[in-house]
Design goal:
The chain is of the alpha+beta class. Strands 1, 4, 5, 6, 8, 9, 10, 11 and 12 form a 9-stranded mixed beta sheet that branches. Strands 15-17-16-19-14-18 form a 6-stranded antiparallel beta sheet, with helices on one face. It has a two-stranded antiparallel ribbon with strand order 2-3. The chain is built from 13 helices and 21 strands. It has 2 domains: about 270 residues, no CATH class; about 140 residues, no CATH class.
Length: about 425
């Protein structure tokens, strides 16, 4: 990973205790007007007032909205609701959460990483920063306007690094297991506990930095915000190496961390008003193999996929409630269509769905020269509910993208299709703010 540096942070004042539940928020891009108002009802100094200054998220708002966000941030600092520290520190971060009745704990560090262009490998032996998904212009413009106004990075990028020897795990445990967290909070939307330990000892910071420096970093979440940090730095022109705009706020987690899980992002397809399952099977002959799945739930359909054949996916047809397990007829079905792509990219189930099932089968057969429409619900229940609503013809139950595939595709310089990964849980916004003015 690039060199990491400590932060001179802005954090919430903790004179009344270390619980900041009422002031932190989920990432801005998963919120809407209702959830924003719910957070502000807990505390009018919730970070959402600054991080999501206008709605809907990921759109560009009026200049006045960003100016108001900057004014609010400055007011909270002057009123003592937020505290600026001149003592450089990194932060050990632990999230405790439950998935399918099983408890997990994910550990990492919050620190600044020196900004580099995607894929750039410096001559000093430090690792690079790699993207795995595409970015879009409007969210980047929105975040850049907010960064210019506030002169701060309000929420961290989620970065993964490879640590096969488990060098970092014991270092994190040595902090976490010796004392209580310095501050903590729960995000209301998912009941995840976020705990943070301040590490200001320079020797310990140097030890983390030296251990992490050779590792590559893969962005799990926050591509738009990292690109925003790159753009902001470029706007500053020729700046000194120690200028704060050279840095980007990250949470860094080892790919081997026992609490790191990737959930599937299922797909619901529409725009095919004449869809017919029998016609779909005929159009897919020689490319897909169909096996009826009878007498079970959509959750049980998902459970059988790992042992169901090459690139197995589940299909739910809302017109009659029928379900199928669908596998590809060959192990590398995109080889002829994309010979220039890496094998790692061609083996992605999400790529096979998009480029084989949708583009080569569904669109020519059912979309009348148009495009299939997509929705990406995170849960099976939501996916089925969307599929059962008007305008959608298929729910596709996906398997999670393996972590190893993410690293392989990133290093090849390729990008995955949209919504290829769903890292759960999301990071909290408001734990640590990084000033860059």
């Amino acid at each position: 990973m690039p060199k990491i540096r400590p932060i001179r942070p802005i954090t919430y004042n903790r004179e009344q205790g270390n619980d900041i539940t009422d002031r932190i928020a989920p990432p801005y891009d998963v919120l809407d007007e209702h959830s924003k108002n719910a957070l502000l009802s807990l505390n009018d100094a919730n970070i959402v007032a600054v991080d999501l200054p206008h709605l809907p998220p990921k759109t560009v708002g009026p200049d006045s909205a960003y100016a108001q966000a900057a004014e609010t941030l400055g007011k909270w600092i002057s009123e003592g609701k937020l505290s600026k520290s001149d003592e450089p520190a990194i932060f050990v971060y632990q999230q405790t959460y439950t998935v399918r009745d099983r408890k997990f704990q994910r550990r990492g560090i919050i620190a600044n990483a020196v900004i580099r262009q995607f894929g750039e490998k410096p001559a000093d032996g430090a690792g690079g920063i790699f993207a795995h998904e595409q970015t879009f212009s409007e969210p980047k413009e929105d975040r850049l306007k907010l960064m210019r106004a506030t002169k701060a990075q309000l929420s961290p990028i989620f970065g993964l690094f490879d640590d096969p020897s488990n060098d970092v795990g014991p270092m994190l445990a040595d902090v976490i297991e010796k004392r209580e967290a310095d501050f903590a909070g729960k995000t209301a939307n998912d009941d995840v506990l976020h705990e943070v330990w301040i590490v200001s000892d320079s020797a310990r910071i140097d030890s983390f930095a030296k251990t992490l420096e050779p590792c590559d970093t893969f962005i799990a979440d926050g591509h738009h915000r990292y690109t925003t940090a790159l753009n902001y730095k470029q706007e500053q022109g020729d700046i000194a190496q120690d200028h704060a705009a050279n840095n980007c706020l990250f949470v860094l987690v080892a790919m081997q961390d026992e609490g790191l899980i990737v959930l599937p992002t299922h797909r619901v397809l529409g725009g095919m008003p004449d869809f017919d399952m029998q016609k779909f099977k005929e159009a897919a002959k020689g490319q897909l193999e169909f096996k009826p799945f009878e007498g079970g739930t959509i959750e049980q359909l998902e459970a059988v996929l790992p042992a169901a054949g090459s690139h197995a996916m589940g299909i739910y047809d809302p017109s009659d409630g029928s379900m199928y397990v669908v596998a590809t007829a060959t192990a590398d079905p995109l080889a002829e269509q994309f010979p220039e792509k890496s094998e790692a990219w061609r083996q992605l189930d999400v790529a096979i769905l998009q480029h084989l099932i949708v583009e080569k089968i569904c669109e020519p057969t059912f979309a009348a020269g148009g495009k299939v429409s997509w929705k990406f619900p995170h849960t099976l229940a939501d996916s089925k509910a969307v599929a059962d609503s008007d305008g959608y013809q298929l729910c596709v139950v996906m398997q999670a993208t393996p972590l190893a595939s993410i690293g392989s595709v990133c290093r090849s310089g390729e990008l995955m299709p949209q919504k290829s990964t769903y890292f759960y849980p999301k990071l909290a916004t408001g734990l640590v703010i990084n000033p860059i003015g």
